[in-house]
Design goal:
Layout lengths: L4 E2 L2 E2 H22 L4 H7 L5 H17 L1 H11 L1 H20 L4 H29 L5 H29 L4 H15 L1
Antiparallel strand pairs: 1-2
Helix pairs in contact: 1-6, 1-7, 1-8, 3-6, 4-5, 4-6, 5-6, 5-8, 6-7
Length: 185
């Protein structure tokens, strides 16, 4: 395997960093809403706890149901195209939730975000397995996976501090998430 260098850093190391940051971004989104469900609920009229809880269900329904189709599309069109398409859909879904004036729009945004994130798993691991030297794959996968824990902490703590302690509108937290996703794109 060729260890091509781009920008002075081995290409496989760049992939590991970008894929880890991708998980950070995904997990920030996945966890950012949970602590602020009461604020979301208060901004909507007469919404039950079950209806608020369904926001995550819509995301994970799309995420899980699109894993295999996205894997097929990654094989057909390539990892980079699917990463860009997936993150674009993820951004649109996140913005849809931020701009939502009702639960239906939040559910739609959650479906879009989940569908967009579905392309990441197969793209990230096929990129790493194709480019990371065999002797470094276990370490690379550990670094890539650590992005999820980092993102989870940032999402849970960040939204709690920004919305609950600093009185930021919950929608602004999603604009911040969308900005992070645009940077990733």
């Amino acid at each position: 395997m060729s260890e091509t260098k781009k920008s002075g850093i081995d290409y496989w190391k760049q992939i590991v960093v970008v894929m880890s940051l991708g998980w950070v971004a995904i997990w920030i989104y996945r966890t950012v809403l949970t602590p602020i469900y009461p604020e979301i609920q208060a901004s909507l009229d007469n919404v039950s706890n079950a209806e608020i809880g369904a926001i995550a269900s819509f995301y994970f329904f799309a995420y899980c149901s699109m894993q295999i189709p996205c894997g097929i599309l990654v094989d057909k069109f390539g990892q980079k195209i699917m990463l860009m398409a997936g993150f674009t859909l993820f951004i649109i879904g996140t913005l849809c939730i931020a701009k939502a004036n009702g639960l239906a729009m939040i559910y739609t945004g959650s479906l879009m975000a989940g569908g967009g994130c579905a392309s990441f798993f197969s793209s990230a691991y096929s990129l790493s397995s194709a480019n990371v030297p065999q002797a470094r794959r276990a370490l690379a996968n550990a670094i890539i996976n650590s992005g999820s824990a980092i993102g989870m902490g940032i999402g849970l703590i960040g939204s709690s501090i920004l919305v609950k302690n600093m009185s930021m509108a919950w929608q602004n937290v999603l604009y911040i998430v969308a900005a992070i996703l645009v940077i990733m794109l």
